[in-house]
Specification:
Length: 376
C-alpha cells in the first residue's frame, strides 16, 4: 500500500516535469574538417576556456570563445507567436541571447535564425545595449523583453540580448543563440536569468533542472523542475556548491588513475559547465593526466592518442564529496576525422560535456547542490 502511494506520488511529480529534447548536431570541428577549414579557424580563434569565467569586473562584455566540439542544442520559442531558435543550454553563463534581424547576411557569423521583434505582439525594447566579446574583439547588440516558450511552458517578460554582429566562427556552431543556466551574479544588468523567472512565475514544481547528454544524435534531454530516474541508474550523489552566486562551483578532492593521485592532490575548485565540451584543468595536472594516458601534443595543443586499443586505457576516477566517479576511456577519448584526442585540456577546472555524458547531472538551486548519477 505504502509503495503504491510512493509510486503514485512519484508519477505525479515526474509528470509535472517538462522535458526539452536536445539534439546532438555536428560540431564545428567536424563541419570545418569536412571543408578543410579547421586549421585556419583554430589558428584565428584559439580556444580559451577561461574566457567565460573571468570575474565580471574585469570585463565589460559577455565573453565567448570558440569551443569547436560543442554539439548539443534544443529549441525555444521567442515572442508571440513564437519564433523558433536552436540554443545551447549553458550552465556556464547566465544570459539569454539570439540573433536579431539587424544581424545581416554581410556578417557571415549571423548565418542563423533571426528574431523579428516587429512580428511579436509581446516584445518590449530594452534600453541597455548588449555586448558579446569574442577573442577577436566584441560585438554589440540590443536588448529586449519577451515571452519565451520552452516545451509547453511560457516564461513571461524575460530579458534577453539580440545580437547584431557575430564573429565568423559562429557560422559553424550548430546553434543560433545561448540560454544561460548559471546564477544571477553572472547575468547582464536588466533582468534575472530565465530559470529564476521560471521559478518565480510558478512554472515548475521544484527549483531545479537536470540534463542527460546522450552520445547519439537523439535522446538527450533537459528536464525542467526535477529529475527523471529513467535517465540514470543507482542513486544521485549530491555535492554542495560553494560560492553559489555565479557558477555551479564544486570541490574535487582528488583525481586518481589506478589508485595513484594524478591531479588535484590538494583539492581543486571546478565549474560544472554544459557549455564546455571537454574537461579542463590546470596545466600541470592536465599534463600529468595526459602523460598517464600516453598522449602527445599536436600543433594546436590538443592531447592526441592512437585510436587503436583506446579501450585499454585506464579509468580516471574523480573523488568528489566522498564519492568516486569513474570516467572510462569510452567517455574521455574523442574521435574525429583527424584522429583521437583525450577530452582533457588546460585552463581553469571545468567539468564539461565529456563528464556529463557519463553522469546524468542535476542542478538544484534551492539547496545549492549538484547531483551526479551514472547515466542510463
Ligand atoms: C518582420 O515582421 C513584420 C511584422 O510582421 C513584417 O512586416 C516584416 O516584413 C518582417 N521582416 C522581415 C525581414 O521578415
Amino acid at each position: 500500500m505504502k509503495s503504491a502511494f510512493v509510486l503514485l506520488a512519484f508519477l505525479a511529480l515526474s509528470q509535472g516535469l517538462l522535458r526539452i529534447p536536445l539534439m546532438r548536431g555536428k560540431s564545428a570541428r567536424q563541419l570545418l574538417e569536412e571543408r578543410g577549414l579547421f586549421e585556419e579557424y583554430r589558428k584565428k580563434f584559439p580556444y580559451n576556456p577561461a574566457a567565460k569565467f573571468l570575474p565580471r569586473n574585469e570585463q565589460s562584455a559577455v565573453p565567448m570563445t570558440f569551443d569547436p566540439d560543442i554539439t548539443y542544442y534544443g529549441e525555444i520559442g521567442v515572442g508571440t507567436p513564437p519564433q523558433f531558435f536552436k540554443v545551447l543550454f549553458d550552465t556556464g553563463s547566465s544570459d539569454l541571447w539570439v540573433p536579431s534581424m539587424s544581424c545581416t547576411s554581410t556578417n557571415s557569423g549571423c548565418d542563423h535564425a533571426k528574431f523579428n521583434s516587429s512580428a511579436s505582439s509581446t516584445f518590449q525594447a530594452g534600453t541597455k545595449p548588449f555586448y558579446i566579446m569574442y577573442n577577436s574583439g566584441f560585438a554589440a547588440g540590443s536588448t529586449g523583453y519577451d515571452t519565451i516558450k520552452l516545451s509547453d511552458l511560457y516564461v513571461e517578460h524575460q530579458f534577453f540580448g539580440l545580437t547584431e554582429t557575430e564573429a565568423v566562427f559562429m557560422m559553424s556552431v550548430p546553434w543560433d543563440g545561448i540560454l544561460g543556466l548559471a546564477f544571477p551574479g553572472m547575468s547582464l544588468e536588466g533582468g534575472p536569468p530565465i530559470f529564476d523567472n521560471m521559478w518565480n512565475q510558478g512554472k515548475i514544481p521544484q527549483n531545479m533542472f537536470s540534463m542527460y547528454l546522450s552520445s547519439s544524435v537523439e535522446g538527450s534531454v533537459l528536464i525542467l523542475g526535477g529529475t527523471d530516474p529513467s535517465y540514470y541508474t543507482g542513486s544521485i550523489k549530491w555535492i554542495p556548491l560553494f560560492r553559489a552566486t555565479n557558477f555551479w562551483n564544486i570541490h574535487i578532492q582528488s583525481i586518481n588513475i589506478d589508485g595513484n593521485t594524478v591531479a588535484c592532490s590538494a583539492s581543486c575548485e571546478a565549474i560544472v559547465d554544459s557549455g564546455t565540451s571537454v574537461i579542463i584543468g590546470s596545466g600541470q595536472d592536465i599534463n600529468n593526466i595526459n602523460g598517464w594516458l600516453g598522449a602527445s601534443t599536436d600543433q594546436y595543443g590538443d592531447a592526441v592518442v592512437s585510436c587503436s586499443n583506446t579501450n585499454l586505457l585506464p579509468d580516471i576516477v574523480f573523488n568528489i564529496n566522498g564519492y568516486s566517479f569513474a570516467l572510462p576511456p569510452s567517455a574521455y577519448v574523442m574521435k574525429s576525422a583527424s584522429g583521437c584526442r583525450t577530452g582533457f585540456a588546460p585552463g581553469p577546472w571545468i567539468l564539461g560535456e565529456v563528464f556529463m555524458r557519463q553522469f546524468y547531472t542535476a542542478f538544484d538551486i534551492s539547496n545549492n547542490m549538484v547531483g551526479f548519477a551514472q547515466a542510463a
